Amino acid sequence: TSTCPNAFICVISNPVNSTVPIVAEVLKAHNAYDPKKVFGVTTLDIVRASTFVSELKKTDAQSTKVTVIGGHSGVTIIPILSATGQSFSQAELDGLTKRIQYGGDEVVQAKSGAGSATLSMAYAGARFANSILEATVLGKTVTECAYVNSDVASADGLEYFSTETEFGKSGIVRIFPIPQLSDYEKKLYAAAVPELKANIEKGVEFVKKSKPAL
Questions:
Q1: How far apart are CA 45 and CA 17, in angstroms?
Q2: 9-11 and 77-79 beta bridge pairing
Q3: Are 70 and 78 in contact (CB under 8 A)?
Q4: Catalytic, out of 37, 48, 72, 99
Q5: Is the alpha carbon torsion for 138, 175, 85, 59 positive or negative?
Q6: Dihedral of CA 54/142/67/18: which sign?
Q7: Secondary structure of 33-91 as H, E, C letters
Q8: What is the rounded distance in angstroms from the CA atom of residue 3 to the CA atom of residue 150?
Q9: pLDDT at 113
Q10: Whether 72 is catalytic
Q11: One digit per residue, pLDDT tens: the chain, 214 residues?
Q12: Domains recognised in the chain with CATH numbers
């Protein structure tokens, strides 16, 4: 923190729902926390969602945009399929949602337990890092979904949440509110809240029980 106080910190180590609060609490203990510069990288969820939707609907994955909000594991991952401009049957919604939420498990099973997602994770991390560089080096204003400290879901007791986030040279400049949700997505949100809240509390408690050291 004293060496590079203005650094952007991108947390990609799982469980992101808990590791971002851990990073924040450690930085707070050293009076070095800037919530505008700490990001949980959830880009892999976006990449998977865009890929799976494009495969199903026979569209171009690069131009298929799917917003994914919430957290970065299991039921906390909430794909906003209603905003894609595509129509889905209930079976398609259920199948896509489960595959997006548990895509990591699918990879582990495909590798017979010998590993997890590697190439897709590297791609997602590089994509987010490139966006950070566009903001910090080129001075562009960039929008990415990221798991950050925000009040968009504070009414439900959540201090951290992933939504579209706009950032520039000095960090986060705007956090977009939770988008309009379909009835199906409202149920996903309701299921995500208690799990995400528990994950956040677990991270905070972990730091309280340990001695923060950077």
A1: 13
A2: unpaired
A3: yes
A4: 72
A5: positive
A6: positive
A7: CCHHHEEEECHHHHHHHHHHHHHHHCCCCCCCCCCEEECCCHHHEEECHHHCCCCCCHH
A8: 27
A9: 57
A10: yes
A11: 577 878 999 999 999 999 999 999 999 998 999 999 999 999 999 999 999 999 999 998 888 899 999 999 999 999 999 999 999 999 999 999 999 999 765 655 555 555 555 777 899 999 999 999 999 999 999 999 999 999 999 999 999 999 999 999 999 999 999 999 999 999 999 999 999 999 999 999 999 988 655 5
A12: 9-205 (3.90.110.10)
Q: Residue for token digits 């400290």?
A: 149
Length of the chain: 214
Q: Which two tokens stand for residue 69?
A: 């909000």
CA dihedral 4, 123, 201, 199 (to 10 degrees): -170
Which structure tokens are listed for 206?
């972990």
Q: Which of 212, 81, 71 is nearest to 145 (CA)?
A: 71
Give the C-alpha separation, 104 to 111, whole Å.
11
